Predict the 3D structure of the following.
Amino acid sequence: MAEYDYDLFVIGAGSGGVRAARLTALDGKRVAVAEEYRVGGTCVIRGCVPKKFMVMASEVSHALEIAEGYGWSFDQARFDWPTFLEAKDVEIARLSGIYAANLGKAGVELVHGRAVLKDAHTVEIVGKDQVFTAEKILIATGGRPWKPDGLTGIEHAITSEEAFHLPELPKRILIAGGGYIAVEFAGIFAGLGVETTLIYRGPNILRGFDDDVRAHLAGEIEKRGIKVILGCQHEKIEKTPTGLINHLENGMKLETDVVMFATGRVPHVKGLGLDAAGVELNEAGAIKVDRWSKTTAENIWAIGDVTDRMNLTPVAIREAVAFHQTVFRNNPQHFDYEAVATAVFSQPPVGVVGLSEAEARRSCSAGVDVYVARFRPMKYAFTGSEERVLMKLVVDAESQRVVGVHIVGPDSPEMIQLAAIAVKAGLTKAQWDATCAVHPTMAEELVTLKEKQSSSTSAG
């Protein structure tokens, strides 16, 4: 048997790569992980963690508006962007340091640099004259923002990664896109007092979500002052002395200080040397893997966003655990992607788990029962706000299992985590109804929905 430098070499120190490396090293294996930027990956460094800090900062302005309805008054309240950036960066550095320290405690060697595959067992660190061999290799390089390179003036636009480090807060911003990242940053900038426009080429935001959720959120974010333009995209971006002029396909011209593209992310595979190692890509440009996360190379696996299966940090972590159990514990496992809860930290936020109504109508042979509530939450009773909460249950008409839960409103990400337990467990609508409500809360609506909005007896 060939002697290798390591039992496992991990390329990418994001949440998935770090978890796989630590678990394997704790089993006594020789493990190294290479990271070209900072330990922590997309989620910790340039994704969900700093974004959530920005969401929380931007929500304060709305909280102040609500507070006035309750009798509070505030004089000269203001937001200082540089102060926030400094505090955010200090916390991100702390978290990155914890990730690195935990690798060290587990006995993982951390290699700083960009790793490239030279063959199926050999990794080179670019520019550092370092070459390592490994019996097994795990690719966990994540994804990167995508921009339409052919668009005239695209060089003047930023992505979410640059949005975390803008030297100053713009007065006007246009965000192109309609997914998680676009609607979240639209809420962030609008909450911080920036004149915000969101454009999306599709008929409504959040493609892939339940249609009621999409329509409800589109209306609610406009109440927060965000201008939403649908069915439209850029023709070009023109830089002028006073700003950036966005020339849109519908003939509109909008001048802003910043243009941000949040039009999707792509697997980070460029320059990895996959061909040399016999690792193939699928039609979407992601690393092709089987249910056990094994690539087309016998000794190489891949997890997380680079495989473009379900691009969520907790999923990458669970894929890492399954990889470790399968490869190093002789306990074959694969992650179950059914009924994975997710949240969109828009303003108001969204929490969903399970099937949309449309998906359920296609998959439930006997049809579906749908329960919907729209109401003004108690929190806004004193403020005169017209904001509304949406709660929706989708039920398999035959088994009466609740197969989908969709919430738009305050605290929906917190509620959906617990709702996901019930959906994953396959509980029925009768069992939800048998659960006593907690009053007065918004969440009680989930167990008091009695009247069907619609019911079908066959899939449609």
Notes: The mean pLDDT is 95. The longest strand covers residues 130-139. The chain has twelve helices and 22 strands. The first helix runs from residue 15 to 26.
